[in-house]
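In response to reviewer comment 3 from the previous cycle, which asked for concrete evidence that the modeling workflow produces usable outputs, we include below a single protein chain processed end to end. The sequence was submitted unchanged, and the resulting structure tokens are shown without manual editing.
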Amino acid sequence: MHAASREALERLNASLDQGLSESANTVEIGATNGSELFEVVDTLDTDRSLRVALVDAAAAPEQRVSLIKGLLAGKVSASTEEIVSAAVSQNWSDTRDFRNGLIALGRRALLRSAEAQGQLERVEEELFQLARIVEREPQLEMLLADKAVSADARRDLLAKVLYGKVTSVTEALALQAVGRVQKRPVEDLDALCDEVAALSGREVARVRSAAPLGEQQQSLLADKLEKIYGRKIAVHSEVDSSLLGGAVIRVGDEVIDGSTAGKLRKLRRSLA
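The workflow returned the following structure tokens.
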């Protein structure tokens, strides 16, 4: 995202947070804002000329706001209309940044709703586990990434996988992501997990271990990683019996391989 767009999004994020914090019903309003913002994006995706008009720097902000208000009247809640109108009044570098800004606002509204319910860490863990499920099922990931299939069909497929197994916020975030995949579905879901953690000022450590990690083990590992990296760490783990023993830890782009299988590979290379 370009500098002007980043500044616009920062202002909108602050405004969204303030509005939700002052609301008497953050849970419901945040969830409504999030889902409606995603619907607005879906509408804009079908009309390029409208997207261009809404970021046209040659037009006065009032003109752009009037245009979007006419489009949204009676179709979304008053609070969502206010958020989108505020977004349209900002200066965006291009239509892509504008679209991505609305998505970011939608995600943030949903996450603030989850936070108000005390479910933020649960959403983070569910997204991590969902990414691992998709990662272990190449055929499922291939179907979710197939751009020859409509966004609705991809969402319907994932909805069947998720039905009754995750929170409504996790489901909404995941369905939006697969509706317009940016990278691989696994990478997009992992990016969502990172986004949730970042909202709490944490970075994700993805751990593959030969045996399940207990809560105390995860807590001790988080403490050690926080001392190494100098920031708060959210540990998410999965079992990988092929490691034979130990664990592989990934924080950002850095990988710490303390597994038995990794040590054996190093030994083989040294003897070759």
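Residues 65 and 194 are 33 Å apart (CA to CA). We consider this sufficient to address the reviewer's concern, and the full set will be provided in the supplementary archive.
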